[in-house]
Specification:
Number of domains: 2
Shape: globular
CATH class of the largest domain: Alpha Beta
Number of strands: 2
Radius of gyration: 20 Å
CATH superfamily of the largest domain: Metalloenzyme, LuxS/M16 peptidase-like
Number of helices: 9
CATH topology of the largest domain: Cytochrome Bc1 Complex, Chain A, domain 1
Oligomer: single chain
Strand content: 5-15%
Distance between the termini: 23 Å
């Protein structure tokens, strides 16, 4: 539930910072997807700017998100989310969909909305800051991010675009300055990958932020 609450907060924050203030793109959306047992926070931006620049701006904005959390009234945001969970389903079709989803999933948690509303009321500002530090802070090793560039320009055009925006160009066709991989040919990339045993779980303490 904390991730859902942060997703709502992050949407307002990134929309204001990236679209209104920095004007990086007209379309800026944040939403949470539930792929049981995994949950993901998706940041979707439509822009003419270089994707590398967008990545740098997003990371910079996420780094400052902790200050935003500390500055908002978490109780008000929590109660707003609770009211949505507590509201009655508006039609028989919605009720049927709700119940059949629980039947198909095998969870049979027909009272999940009430449970989620109760869980939301236990969330504190300190806990949200902790979640930010683990999953959103660009400097933490525990964050995992996957970027998808839809219909990007060619690598040459991409580098020229980044150079024109005073961004750091990729030193070659596969690597960005911060270590991210640009996959220009999916099949070629897959062919170069080796299969390893699953890594052991990291035992390092989460870095301070």
């Amino acid at each position: 539930m904390a991730l859902e609450l942060i997703g709502n907060m992050l949407h307002s924050y990134l929309y204001e910072e990236l679209r209104t203030k920095q004007q990086l793109g007209y379309h800026v959306v944040v939403f949470v997807l539930n792929h049981d047992p995994l949950r993901t926070v998706t940041i979707e931006i439509q822009s003419e700017l270089c994707p590398i620049v967008l990545t740098q701006r997003i990371d910079s904005t996420l780094a400052n998100f902790r200050k935003y959390i500390n500055g908002v009234n978490v109780d008000e945001m929590t109660e707003s989310a609770v009211s949505l969970k507590s509201g009655k389903l508006s039609s028989t079709a919605e009720e049927a969909t709700h119940f059949w989803e629980k039947i198909y999933s095998g969870s049979y948690e027909f009272d999940i909305r009430e449970k989620e509303a109760a869980a939301l009321r236990t969330i504190t500002k300190e806990y949200l800051v902790e979640v930010w530090g683990i999953y959103f802070n660009p400097k933490t090793y525990t964050r995992v991010d996957l970027q998808t560039w839809v219909n990007p320009p060619s690598i040459d055009e991409l580098q020229n675009s980044c150079i024109s925006l005073n961004a750091h160009p990729a030193p070659d066709h596969l690597q960005t300055p911060d270590g991210r991989t640009i996959i220009d040919d999916v099949k070629q990339f897959q062919a170069t990958q080796k299969v390893f045993d699953p890594p052991l779980m990291a035992t390092k303490a989460i870095p301070k932020y």
